[in-house]
Design a protein that fits this description.
It is a single-pass membrane protein. The chain is α/β, with parallel strands linked by helices.
């Protein structure tokens, strides 16, 4: 009970002290959105190390982009209280003008995240590379929090206590437009250049200080995200188009009816079209066999044998699954047939003869 409470408290603390994003227009040395820069400042590590972690997860697990988008959604800008993911969950009227801009960005980020999160693995099962990458990066976040549980003073818009004991120079960063300097940050004291020179008190007041030229917003990060999103959408549409072709009777229907042990294959793979594997004519086996049936794009129909002991396992794909795993006909003589049925894109039905009930 104590362990669960401690873990929950730690996760809540991690979220409450999560780093803000520090993009280039706010003084950060950011390359895209300031995610790595903010993480580096919060946990006092080199942002380059964070960038390397994202790149490594991108090329090893393929989900580094989805993990970066999720971090972008969950991290507010420096000086702001609301992150993009929080902005889209609130009514527009409840948000300030700067937060409304984050709301628009949040919707785009959410769309790109959904498109880049999952992919189909080589074995036909749904495989989320984004989930593996995020698990790796969440573990790294946990370790960073254990190393530096307290944030630097003046970094967070709602600065919790206590703060990091060692002061951190944040003078190069400025809050987002329309927001205040985060609490706890020390503002440099004003200096009167004439305070030590009374003879110059009659000099005219200096004019207004020149305002720094605002950087133009960079569009290339959004263009890059758009390209990634377009590629992901094209992958999804290709699958939908394949299903459409099947509905138009374009593809190949496969049917197998092994009548001898020699005709029994180790694997039956569906393609674009229906797949039927009829094992009812299979005689008793001299040896045990393992047969795998993988669905493609289309329905799968499997008929169990009546004269062979069967050990059936079922794995769902993207479609309805009508398969009752278990042991069948275990009183029959001969070798056992281990049958592994995995769905693809389409319904799967495993038919059991009436006189062949499942047996535990």
């Amino acid at each position: 009970m104590t362990t669960t409470s401690t873990f929950s408290d730690t996760v809540s603390r991690m979220w409450a002290t999560r780093p803000p994003r520090i993009p280039a227009e706010q003084g950060g040395n950011a390359k895209i959105a300031g995610v790595c820069e903010g993480i580096g400042v919060r946990y006092q590590i080199d942002p380059t190390i964070v960038r390397v972690l994202f790149v490594v997860s991108l090329f090893t697990f393929g989900g580094g982009l989805a993990a970066y988008l999720l971090a972008w959604m969950c991290m507010p800008r420096y000086g702001m209280h609301v992150a993009p993911i929080q902005a889209i969950s609130r009514r527009k009227e409840e948000l300030s003008p700067p937060e409304r801009k984050e709301r628009t960005a949040g919707w785009w980020l959410l769309i790109f995240f959904v498109l880049t999160f999952g992919s189909f693995g080589t074995e036909g099962a749904f495989f989320s590379s984004g989930l593996m990458a995020m698990a790796l990066l969440l573990g790294a976040w946990w370790l960073l929090h254990q190393r530096a549980p307290h944030p630097p003073a003046g970094l967070l818009a709602e600065s919790p206590s206590p703060a990091m004991s060692t002061p951190v120079d944040l003078s190069g960063f400025h809050p987002a437009d329309g927001t205040d300097v985060p609490p706890g940050r020390e503002t440099p004291p004003s200096w009167d250049p004439l305070g030590a020179a009374p003879f110059a008190w009659d000099l005219p007041e200096p004019g207004p200080a020149p305002q720094p030229t605002r950087r133009k917003p960079r569009l290339w990060p959004w263009v890059a995200l758009g390209l990634f999103g377009a590629l992901s959408a094209a992958t999804i549409l290709s699958g939908v188009f394949g299903a459409f072709l099947y509905q138009k009777d374009v593809g190949q229907d496969l049917s197998y009816t092994p009548a001898t042990e020699a005709e029994l294959q180790g694997r039956y793979q569906g393609e674009i079209g229906s797949l039927e594997v009829d094992l009812r004519q299979l005689p008793p086996l001299d040896a045990s066999h393992t047969v795998r049936i993988d669905g493609g794009i289309g329905p799968v129909n499997v008929y169990l044998p009546t004269a062979v002991p069967v050990q059936l396992t079922c794995e769902e794909g993207l479609g309805e699954l009508d398969c009752d795993p278990g042991t069948y006909n275990d009183r029959a003589s001969g070798g056992t047939l281990t049958l592994q049925v995995e769905g693809g894109i389409g319904p799967v039905k495993v038919s059991v003869p009436r006189d062949l009930p499942a047996q535990d």
